[in-house]
Amino acid sequence: MHTTDRKITWLAAGFLGTAGLMALAATAAFSQNTPAAMQLPAGPGRDLVASNCSQCHALGLALGKRRTPEEWGTQLTAMVARGAQLDSEQLKLAQAYLATHFAAAPSAGGAVQAAASQQAGPAQSYPRPTGPAQWPAYGGGNANRNFAALTQITPKNVAKLQPAWSYHYGAGVVAQGDQGLDYRFEVTPLLIGGIMYFSTPSSPATPGLKASITALRPETGALIWKYESPVNIHGRGVAYWPGDDKTAPRIIFATDGGLIMAVDVTTGRLAPDFGWGGQIDAYIGVSSEVVGETRRSSFTIPNPVTVWRNLFITGSRPGEDGPPGPRGDIRAFDARTGRKVWEFHTIPHPGEEGSDQWPGSSWRDVTGANVWSTMSVDDERGIVYATTGDANVAAAVGGSQPYAASILALDAATGKRLWSHQLTHQDVWDWDSPTPVVLMDHVENGKTIPAVLVTGKHGLVFLFDRVTGEPLNGVAERPTPQMDKPDPSIWPTQPFPAWPEPVARTQMTRDEIPDLVPGMKAACQATWDQYKAVSGPLYTPRRHPDHAVVTYPSSVGGSNWGGGAYNPETGLYYIAVQNRVTFSLPSNAPQGMGHASPPVPGTAAAAAAAAAPPRPRGPRGGRNQPFTFTTPDNITLSCGALPWGEMVAVDMKAKKIAWRVPLGITEGIGPKGLTTGTSNIGATLTTATGLVFVGATNDRRLRALDGKTGRKLWETTLDASAAAAPISYMGSDGKQYVVVAAGGGTSVGQKQMADTLIAFKLP
What we know:
The chain is mainly β and 763 residues long. It is 8% helix and 26% strand. The chain is built from 6 helices and 41 strands. A 5-stranded antiparallel beta sheet has the order 1-7-6-5-4, with no helix packed on it. The protein has a 5-stranded mixed beta sheet with strand order 2-35-36-37-38, with no helix packed on it. A hairpin with a 6-residue loop joins strand 36 and strand 37. It is globular and about 90 Å long.
């Protein structure tokens, strides 16, 4: 597909320049906080240029490209055609000013002349803006702290928050809990240099609606430009590469089917020198000849790529349909050209370290051990941190399955493994670590240690030395529950940190079944008794032939992909968890996800597997009984212990949980529903004033909590649940904003989906 095939929509509330003048990122050359005219060299025409261009553009980027006088004339004429109010004399004055101060460097033939003192300097560079007014990457930056160092919104005034603006991308409100992974609006917007960037998906309920990369005014929600993609954009956000001396900044994003595209923010079009016409095919290189194109439909990169210097680093979601399938390798690409720079095999290939733990050909075409969350980077040290999922194969393969269900520290420049730790051995529970790694500083005996914090669906919190990988919170291997007869799929031990205690529930008793409405407790206890249910501690095998097994956390957590928020000033880490119960009926089925081992390459079985379509999603490996009670009003309630959702604060300085409170309500059952908590998937935001914002719950609420106590300070109802990460930034109007995507559509019982991006501010 070529650039000419893309539909570009340019809209704005005020003046719009040409593509060459569109300024959609900040530069180090000009401050956003000084009057526009003062940012430019003195001379006739300065005020005219500043007053027109600055209404829509960051001046540093708008004027960063040097042009000949004729080129400036063409640009100005195009501005007038798009609505700029300049008469002929003003055009001449503006052209003369630009030609004097922003002329192209002299050519070899000397066609363009300028006074020596006024010749163009080095080509404009585009550094990534930092500081509290920005949100330049997922998680607020490569440290993934979800922390806003802003102080305007406080615990005392947060109750006055009110809607500032909302943007709807066109799918509307859909009375459907989930339309599938591809159509979820879970995006984290970026705020860079006074422009907000984000992606939107298409919708099966709205024919003709295309996925997009969108740029808005962060103070008003007014549309600046929109790139419409011919391929659906499935994901939780985009990444910003700040460019270099020869290349303008780019928004890098992934689509269904494994494409990665780059949009030039100065044109709103695909960058033609990136890959082939602005895109690369990331499916190539992880899909063998055995797999071919048969698994492309299930392959994508759902989370934003991670940018470090001139590289972007990716994980993937290769699908969970079992081998053979595309691999879950970690790869780095050149942000300018799209060329692959390095790759790390999360399933080691023969001859690589750890390959001896994958006997025979069991390593081949395994789809798991992939990074489907967002990676973190120590920018100064050049270390990228990634967490991987389970290996998507039957545990009977044997071996320790190194790099699966692990945290990896890789050299960002080369992909070389520096250290790693497996967080769950032979993960048959699907307890991967989808929460992004958080970079923090840990103080021990008066010594400050650069550290990484990681948690996962299991609810355990691990802390490692960022450089050496040494555990900092006393991680030890402990024996875990085993089957009556030895089962090779159950590893005998698992790693446990000495502190803190698990952030999510790990077990329940029969007596903890809730009694929320008449008849509920008795009915749930009858189900428990019918199947002789047993609830064991963490890492209890999920299936037993003689009795039902009640397991915590479920395969969706505990904590899940959204991740927590860390306040570096207080040392508190905030994480939303859901206490969802899994009730597995008596079964002789194998433990794990029920995937088979890969067939031997070259055999008829391998050919048949490669040609077969991906298996439909659904329960795998045994039967699960819905452990629920339905009221006469048709409200389905979990029989699992309360609360069903919580916000937890971990004091990393005191090495313990500071507080935990129920998060979310259950409507329709009266006062008891106000303290039940509820299922949730999404991220948390914290601020320098000690506020905690979260919208992940399936009750369609966005809340602000007191970071010291967990007390609710503010709440509002959204169009749909915010299965996304809230962000906060300072607008050019001097107002602090909180913005979140209210899209709904996850697998935790949300009732509807929406197309809303909404902002809040103080009056």
